[in-house]
Amino acid sequence: MGGFLILFLLALAALYAVMVVVATYVSVHPPRVPLWLSPAMLGFPQEDVKIDTGGLTLTGWWSDGGEGSLVMVCCHGYLMNRCELMPFIVTLADLGASWLFFDFRCHGKSGGRLCTMGRDEATDVAAAVRFVRARRPGAKIVLFGSSMGGSASAIAVGDDPGLADGLVLDGAYSSMDEAGRGWWDFLGGKVAAVLLRPTLWIGRLFVGFNPAKVVIADYLMKAQHKPVLFLAGDDDPVVPIASLERNVVASGSLTWVEKFEGSGHGEARFREPERYVDAVRRFVRGEVLGVGP
Fold first, then answer.
1. Which of 55, 59, 70, 130 is the most exposed place for a label (fewest CB within 10 A)?
2. What are the backbone dihedrals phi and psi of residue 74, each rounded to the nearest 5 degrees, phi first?
3. Residue 199, class by beta-carbon neighbours within 10 Å (0-12 exposed, 13-18 middle, 19+ buried)?
4. CA angle (130 as vertex; 128, 133 as ends), nearest 5
5. Which residue has the higher pLDDT, 77 or 13?
6. How much of the chain exceeds pLDDT 70, in percent?
7. Torsional class of 171: left (φ above 0), alpha (ψ -120 to 50), beta (otherwise)
8. How confident is the model over 41-48, as a mean pLDDT?
């Protein structure tokens, strides 16, 4: 009986180890979600574009808004694709902007196989901005980032503060290590967060760096005096309020915060869409375009 119990426990431990390794592998090699929406479906101009990062080719859609002075560069979240922020081309149409929607590496139809949750994706953001600069020299550029896309945008602008004229960050986490812990809580609750904690350590072997050392607040500090709008839910396991506050303090004096009571990660746009859109509109008009509310 004792031998059977030992074998059972060893088998259980082996099964758990396999589960953790598989979960880690899938996390950094995420499944690709099919495209489900496009500018043309919503009645807006649409051009298929390819963006060269210097190592990978990204795919996207350019929606030309005419000769306006504003371009919105939409940076989607983890497990999403260029379609995630597509509805805002309708609800923010009064901005008169052109829009770039692109797929991050190993998402959508872009090249690449390894996801680093924002670190290398910052290179994709910089490449997207170069594309826009070639299309619209002199235009004001706003990076509109969701979760991973927001953190990648913050890293990109921290590395090159001249990259954009403003940032709209929805659920941008404070550190990648913290985001990993919160992600499992977001998907499966506290039990999953505890059981899958080892994925954070094993993941370092796959991505080749320590996520705990990639602190978004450090990049925001380097980009101070850049207008930033934080959109955040106060019930977000990926970006707790303390993390939001660290990012806000690091961002400097031109920082706006719109906090949504009862909203989780990325939920505010669904729970309070009018307030959400109004916050983005007021920020872009006031802080980026300087034309008032």
1. 55
2. -95, 125
3. buried
4. 115
5. 77
6. 99
7. left
8. 98
List strand residue ranges (DSSP E) for 24-110, in order. 47-52, 57-63, 70-75, 98-102
Specify the pLDDT at position 292: 63
145/269 Cα distance (integer angstroms):
13
- Cα–Cα distance, 237 to 264 (Å, whole number): 7
CA distance 79 to 29: 10
CA angle (247 as vertex; 246, 252 as ends), nearest 5: 105
Query: How far is 21 from 196, CA to CA, in rounded Å?
Result: 10
Say if strands 57-63 and 98-102 run parallel, antiparallel, or are unpaired. antiparallel
Radius of gyration of the chain (CA): 20
* Nearest Cα residue to 162 out of 104, 225, 117, 207: 225
Place of tokens 């690709």: 32
- What's the pTM? 0.93
CA 119 → CA 179, 209, 233, 246, distances in Å?
Answer: 13, 10, 23, 19
- pLDDT tens readout for residues 148-206: 999 999 999 999 999 999 999 999 988 877 777 777 777 777 777 777 788 888 888 88
pLDDT of residue 1: 59
Give the rounded percent of residues in the chain with a pLDDT score beyond 90: 70
Please give the average per-residue pLDDT across 249-272, as a whole number: 95
Q: What is the DSSP secondary structure assignment for residue 84, as one 8-state letter?
A: T
157-188 b/e with 16+ CB inside 10 Å = b? bbeeeebbbbbbbbbbbbbbbbbbbbbbbbee
Q: How many CB atoms are located within 10 Å of the residue 61 CB?
A: 24
Q: Can you tell me the mean pLDDT for 52-65?
A: 96
- CA 46, 51, 52: angle at the middle one, nearest 5? 170
